[in-house]
Specification:
α1 runs parallel beside α4 and α3 runs antiparallel to α4. The protein has one domain. It has about 120 residues and is mainly alpha-helical. It has four helices and no strands.
Amino acid sequence: GGSYLALQVSVVLSTLLVIIASANFINFNIASAAKRAKEVGIRKALGASKSQLVTQFLSESLLTVLFSGFLGVVIVELALPHFNQLIAQPLTLVYNSLFMLGLVITLTVVGLFSGLYPALFISS
């Protein structure tokens, strides 16, 4: 009935929200890369190689995304009981290998995309 429809709408909206937030994060990283040109210039002057700069940008991006993903799971766990009352159905997160694989792949792809272009752009 209505509860199932509310669940479907919530899943679609949540997915769109994750896509929009990911695109926003990627754009933010690209825009902020130019602001870090001075830092990169100093690191190059001190002998940093292009691969070290790329590794730094990718590491920062991946760590940010992984921390955000962990925080997102915590927020979902805390909000789930209230959401269950709203839709009148007991939902739980299932931490099986498929869920974890999907989460890791999604976070890794977002982290790499958000860090790769700025890393290559600013280090060249």
